[in-house]
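Suppose you are handed only these lines of text.
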Amino acid sequence: MCKNCDLKPVIKLSSGVSLCKNCFIDYFERKTRKTISKFKMISKGDRIAVGLSGGKDSTAVLYIIASIAKRHDTIKVMAISIDEGIKGYRDETLKDAKAMCKKLGITHKVYSYKKELGYTLDQMVKKLDMNPCTLCGVFRRYLLNKYSRKLKVTKLVTGHNLDDESQSVIMNQFRSNVDASARLGPVTGIVADYRFIRRIKPFYLLLEKEIMLYAFLKKFPFSSQECPYAHSAYRSEVRDMLNDFEQRHLGVKNNIINSFLAVLPLLKEHYKAKSKRIKSCKCGEPSSESVCKACQLIKELKD
Ligand code: SF4
Ligand code: ZN
Ligand code: ZN
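From them, the structure of the protein bound to zinc ion can be written out as follows.
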């Protein structure tokens, strides 16, 4: 039975507590708002863009951010979608993204790889011998940062959840990418730099299954279709491993994030000096090298 009201439960949380539909929705929204305030994600006067893919996470986070903005006059919200050009997949999820923005009355901007970079992701993976997700991630971050800056956005919201973050932490450990871990966290980045739009993750402490249930109970239009390139990712192996562990040892993902949060300030401090040497690429985007990763890849695509 539900811990609060004795109704039929819809979920058992990793704390062992069972909740009914309404109590779960209430728990979910309160936990998101608490995460936002705990990590000081949003301030007065913020102009927020939600990176909207049309999947459950970004759709749900857009809904919650829009409801917060409704209650605070000084906070503005819009949505930005990136069309990577993945045939039979992104075209479908973008329809849901459009429908959600229309429902909420939110301005929606769409930027495509084809138009902005000259190639769709499908064309890129045929030309370059690289992991599709690595390629995709470089260009998505590039376009989101570039257009957020142009649109005078002060915070970029992503739908990343506890599952995503715990996978990233473990992947960085397995690959010895300590500096990549330093850039993670509920508010990304190491030093404040006007060229980098800060990314915030209001679902940082929520599990993927909780977001799935919330989006389902709220009847959001969202696609659960999987990207055709996802299966090839190293990430999916780590995801399966963590899911298996979580099933046998409830709370493992939470424990990974809690231990990570305990050392994150030290990691950020350690990498601060290096981050101060950020240069500007000729395209205008910040980079640790004189030519940014996106420009390097575009050159390789053209060669
Ligand atoms: Fe891009 Fe990989 Fe995500 Fe597909 S699964 S959208 S290729 S990052
Ligand atoms: Zn209840
Ligand atoms: Zn560049």
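What can we learn from it? The chain has a mean pLDDT of 93. Residues 281, 283, 285, 292, 294-295 surround zinc ion (ligand 3) (CB under 6 Å).
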